[in-house]
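Q: I'm teaching a short session on how sequence maps to structure, and I want students to see two examples side by side rather than one. Could you give me a first protein with its sequence written out and its structure tokens following it? Keep the formatting plain so it prints cleanly on a handout.
A: Of course. Example one:
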Amino acid sequence: MIVKISGFDENAEVPYIDYDVSDLSSNQLEFLNDNLEDETSLDGDILKIRVFFKDFFPFQSDAAKIRLDDFIVREEIEMNVFLSSFLEDI
């Protein structure tokens, strides 16, 4: 599984992060699309996920502003781990 952040908006009314998830079987893609609580859609063999952050946005700290690339990679890894554990329910 490959997870990439495709965009984010910390200034939106409800800040969000968009993820593109690829390198999954069609069964895995459909399972995630049908069962995740977040906003999802399928674009061919890519699952698009939008996660809204009401309380704490991961990129809002001063450290994140200085080392944004590090924070993006960490967020991608965390989503990968979350989705991997979610797929164990198949």
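Q: Perfect. Now a second example for contrast.
A: Example two:
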Amino acid sequence: MTDKAQDKLRLNLTVLIKTETLQAIVGNTKKSAGKNASGVCHVDTALKVSEMVSRFLEEKDFNSYALDIKNY
């Protein structure tokens, strides 16, 4: 599935992260989302992890890292 930009692809993969990292993402996502009128918080934390990892890879220039043969 392609992303909004035509030169990007959406990948589903397994990423190892620390338990405390996932707990922080879940907690902070719930805090930032707030609750609905019934007092229930509905958030997709898996989507948030995906967004955060994608943003991190973009900001840290993963493309250049991947292009460098020394990283293999």
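Q: What should students look for in example two?
A: Point them to this: Helices lie at 19-33, 45-59, 62-67. Also worth mentioning: Residues 19-33 form the longest helix (15 residues).
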